[in-house]
Amino acid sequence: MYKKFIFYMVLLFAVSFLSVYMLMNYTIIQNGNRNTILDRILPKQKEQSKDTNKEADPLKEQIKEMTLDEKIGQMLMVGVDGYALDNNSRKMIEEYKVSGFIILGQNVQSTNQLLNLVNALKAANLKNKIPIFVSVDEEGGRVDRMPRELKRYPTNREVGQINNSNLSYNIGNVMAEELKSFGFNMNFAPVLDISSNPNNSVIGDRSFASTSKIVSKLGVETMKGLQSGNVISVVKHFPGHGDTSVDSHIELPTVPHDLNRLRNFEFIPFDEAIKNKADAVMVAHILLSKIDSTNPASFSKAVITDILRKQLNFTGVVITDDMAMGAIVKNYNIGEASVKSVEAGSDIILVSHNHENEVMVISALKKAVENGVVTKDRIDESVYRILKLKQKYGLKDKAINSIDVDKINEKINGVLNNY
């Protein structure tokens, strides 16, 4: 009896082994494809495995390898002191690994000096894995950061009076070529504020018009022109700085309009830009008293997340206006305001002035993450959007050897003289 039991156990084991072997190795030819029986029994599992491999996102994998310091650095854009790369700027690159720089009028002396400055910033960043944004406010008119050797653009108001879509597109396009000739890859323009308040000195002729239709049409075309020249266009100043009588560089303006009015007027140009694939939006330091009576738009969750992200469906990069402006530093702690801004949905904090301010913001953001005030997932969301934008425009820290001023001026004149 015992021997029979052993015999049947051995037989059962042999049959089981043979069956598994056949499943794994026996092939069937169907529609010209060789498949094992196991492949045919479990095709979905294998397909899912392949799909999982295909869905691996290189940017997400890159973010996993980044330190917290590197991530926070990508969420900061800073200014430069003087006409050349200084120790503070070098420290921002080497130690804090910031996302980029903004060049202001105070940093521009001549064509060669500006080219050398941009090249120096990029050269200093070569040791870092992620290329830098090099940005500027080049709107035309009185907000013009280019050296004096270069041809001036008309004000947006003058462009608005002509009201020609082709002109606006061509201005954006030739402006992009001019900026790229110096190594810039981002422009804080166009202005999408509607000039609805004659007492508004900070916007004034920086706006295309007093109607949402003209501002939308010409603003979107300028944005497209910049994008076509491979320069990132940052439209501004959401949710609309046109109906203010206070300069946010000095104090905090208050806008008393309700959501219905904003949707049907101030938001319209931004909504149109977003529908036309805006890459980045700058958020202003203005208080919408009927939307969020406590926090300025630049760190209001109601404005950035609820309205800009959810209602207007903006998925790109949100950048604050300069956090060193009077509207912020006279009323708030810049570090705390920056943390609130990130909590509200901002991706990049702009700090154009004062190295101490820049360090304070970085320290505040890091402390907020370490203390659990801001989650690591929230940081990763912003870093992903930033890296995606840099990837889209193919940013590289490549030096430019020289610039042909006469050629650029000829192209600018060619655009302006046709209208």
Strand content: 5-15%
- CATH homologous superfamily classification of the largest domain: Glycoside hydrolase, family 3, N-terminal domain
- The 3D shape can be described as globular
CATH architecture level-2 label of the largest domain: Alpha-Beta Barrel
State the helical fraction. Answer: 40-55%
Overall average residue pLDDT:
90
CATH topology of the largest domain: TIM Barrel
Tell me the structural class: alpha/beta
Distance between the termini: 108 Å
Biggest sheet overview: 8 strands, parallel
The tally of domains stands at: 2
Poorly predicted ranges (pLDDT <50, ≥5 residues)?
26-34, 36-51
Q: Which CATH first-tier class of the largest domain would you pick?
A: Alpha Beta
Question: Whole-number radius of gyration?
Answer: 28 Å
Spatial arrangement of strands, main beta sheet: 11-9-7-6-5-4-3-12
List the secondary-structure elements in sequence, H or E: HEEHHHHEHEHEHHEHEEHHEEHEHHEHHH
Determine the number of helices (DSSP H or I, runs of at least 4 residues).
18
- Total strand count, please? 12
Transmembrane segments: 6-24
Pfam families: Glyco_hydro_3
GO molecular function, one term: beta-N-acetylhexosaminidase activity
Domain Glycoside hydrolase family 3 N-terminal: 67-389
